[in-house]
Fold:
Amino acid sequence: MMENLIVAVIVGASALYAGRKYLPARLFGKADEGCASGCGACKSGCDTPSEAAPAQGPSRRVIPIRSH
Structure:
């Protein structure tokens, strides 16, 4: 009986965590967390200005395949 209660608490806490992390914020009434939310709205970071990376063409890596 006690094991079932412990499992139910763990599963419930996991579901709540996943819901708060991945469902829309308005369902849980939380405010925008900025860069920490992981929404991708911050392209250059929160507090530090980023320097533009030099433009490069598509990267290409050749992996040789050897037959024995």
In short: DSSP finds two helices and no strands in the chain.
